[in-house]
């Protein structure tokens, strides 16, 4: 049995989408962010970094004791173990390369920049009142000089890829790259940085019944409402 340890308002939402698409039995254990927007300490009992998503699973034969974190690893594991060929990426050619690249680019490149932007935006408001003005200036300048130009490059890269492809690997069905890329695509949209193709891509996913069901099951996901 698969258990997804799910944190509200988090990248873990993409795993619920995949589980719904795979139509595999699973349960969700929900965790609530603290007032500091961190995961609660209970998650440390499941995974030493105390982050979400993390799954526990007894495996395809039901006799294993798997604990797996990192969205990319979880997505690849679930597709390989429970997909029966569904959502499998090509094993050669451009589709293979695109799937490989975007599966890793999601958490390896675009998300660290997104997190920098979100954190730099949050720090001043969460600092002692007297320092807020100063910190807003400092973090605003760093964001303007370093983070925003990086975000613009990411947004353009994603947009130009989606200009010619329905899914990130170019086929007619999503692959691991899409289950990873939906989260940064949603953030690009919610921060006003998504181009028209990126918006169209997110909309297409949001209209899928499995995605809608995942939203019902996951609970609070304010990334879509910002
Ligand atoms: N690269 C990891 C990132 C995991 C991560 O940072 N998760 C966030 C949720 S979006 C988290 O648990 N944050 C709470 C915390 O760090 O306390 C993945 O893709 O799973």
From TrEMBL:
Gene3D superfamilies: 1.20.1050.10, Glutaredoxin (3.40.30.10). InterPro entries: Glutathione-S-Trfase_C_sf, Glutathione_S-Trfase, Glutathione_S-Trfase_N, Thioredoxin-like_sf. Residues 1-86 form the GST N-terminal domain. Belongs to the GST superfamily. This is GST N-terminal domain-containing protein. It comes from Marasmius crinis-equi.
């Amino acid at each position: 049995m698969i258990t997804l340890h799910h944190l509200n308002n988090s990248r873990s939402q993409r795993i619920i989408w995949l589980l719904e698409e795979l139509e595999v039995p699973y349960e969700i254990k929900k965790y609530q962010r603290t007032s500091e927007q961190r995961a609660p300490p209970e998650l440390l009992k499941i995974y030493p970094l105390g982050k979400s998503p993390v799954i526990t699973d007894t495996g395809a034969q039901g006799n294993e004791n798997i604990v797996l974190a990192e969205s990319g690893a979880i997505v690849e594991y679930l597709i390989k173990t429970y997909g029966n060929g569904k959502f499998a990426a090509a094993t050669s050619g451009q589709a293979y390369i695109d799937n490989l690249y975007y599966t890793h680019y999601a958490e390896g490149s675009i998300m660290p920049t997104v997190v920098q932007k979100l954190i730099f935006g949050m720090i001043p408001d969460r600092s002692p009142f007297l320092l807020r003005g100063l910190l807003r200036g400092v973090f605003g300048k760093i964001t303007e000089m370093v983070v925003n130009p990086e975000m613009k490059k990411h947004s353009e890269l994603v947009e130009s890829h989606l200009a010619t492809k329905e899914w990130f690997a170019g086929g007619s069905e999503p692959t691991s790259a899409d289950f990873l890329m939906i989260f940064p695509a949603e953030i690009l949209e919610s921060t006003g940085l998504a181009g028209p193709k990126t918006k169209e891509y997110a909309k297409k996913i949001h209209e899928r019944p499995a995605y809608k069901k995942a939203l019902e099951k996951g609970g609070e996901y304010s990334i879509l409402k910002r």
